Amino acid sequence: MNINEFRIVKNIKKYILSLDKILVNFPRKEKILKDKIKETSFDVLELTYYANTLEEKKEIQKQIIS
Predict the structure, then answer these.
(1) How far apart are CA 35 and CA 23, in angstroms?
(2) What is the dihedral of CA 20, 22, 25, 30, to 10 degrees?
(3) Comparing C-alpha atoms, which of 61, 45, 60, 33 is closest to residue 6?
(4) DSSP-derived secondary structure for 15-61
(5) Which of 10, 44, 46, 56 has the most crowded CB, counting CB atoms within 10 A?
(6) pTM for this one?
């Protein structure tokens, strides 16, 4: 199975795309918050890819949830 076929990865990508549409309307004075939200969403995607390569996923899954 290709890693891009995982349902959770697809859902996270959809979430990031919808989040981008919302963040466009963020006020300029909230740029730091906007950047942090984007960064965190990509971190979750990266951790998801990483967790899919491991046999013991519990610790990474805890990081994703938190």
Answers:
(1) 9
(2) -80
(3) 45
(4) HHHHHHHHHTTS-GGGHHHHHHHHHHHHHHHHHHHHHTT-S--HHHH
(5) 44
(6) 0.76
Spatial separation of the C-alpha atoms in residues 3 and 10, rounded to whole Å: 10
Token output for 50: 């990483």
Each residue of 52-61: pLDDT tens digit? 787 787 888 8
Give yes or no for a contact between 51 and 61, defined as CB atoms under 8 angstroms apart.
yes
Amino acid in the structure at residue 56: E
